[in-house]
Amino acid sequence: MNKKILSVMMASVMALSIAACASEDEDTAPVVLSGGQTAESAEGSGAQEAGETAAASADAYVFTYNGIEIRMNAPANGIIEALGDGYTYFEAPSCAYEGMDKVYTYNSIVVRSYTMDGEDYIAAVELKDDTVATAEGIRIGSTEDEVRAAYGEDGQPGTAGIEYTLGDSFISFIFENGKVVAITYTAIVG
Domain range for residue 159? Predict the structure, then answer.
């Protein structure tokens, strides 16, 4: 299956799951906007070229996109502003947290945030294609052996793949026919 199609399908499924939560509240409909126009009219610095890397801090995984560090559980507003306005935006009432779940889809990544105590925080970063990679050089299309060589043999089995936990975050790799088809950094909230 084409990797880009699989990534789009996964993003669509996640967006539909958010929309399903929203349908439980008949007074609130999901908001889908594009080009950086958010419900709050957030301003950004403009779209940036690809040139992604990733890194891990001592207490959480951090993904770097266009020179901007995206740390799991970090306040989201400054990160989203720094990433610029070259994204498509979707929001819906959260099933798990107070406020809204927000999804920012850029060319090569999807950034998700959650709201807690009136502030948005980074919930997840999904890599959409093989133009972005982790600091260890793992990207969509890498082999399972390459993942294990880069991250170690101590990963935990996850849904159709393997997960590695670091502090208050984890990174998961999903495989199909021995190749990575999805990479997601996720915050551990609680």
Answer: 37-187
Cβ pair 121, 114 in contact under 8 A: yes
10 inside domain: no
How far apart CA 179 and CA 170 sit, in angstroms, is 19
Within a domain: 13: no
Which CATH number belongs to the domain containing residue 141 in this structure? Answer: 2.60.460
Q: Say how far apart CA 41 and CA 18 lie, in whole Å.
A: 21
First to last CA, the chain: 36
Query: What distance in Å separates the CA atoms of residue 174 and residue 141, rounded to the nearest whole number?
Result: 11
- Tens digits of residue pLDDT in 88-137: 999 998 887 778 899 999 999 999 999 988 899 999 999 999 999 998 89
Query: Smallest Cα–Cα separation from 174: which of 142, 149, 130, 152?
Result: 142
Evaluate whether 61 touches 53 at the Cβ level (below 8 Å). no
Kindly state the tokens that stand for 69: 């560090």
Q: Is residue 126 part of a domain?
A: yes
Tally the domains of the chain. 1
Global confidence as pTM:
0.72
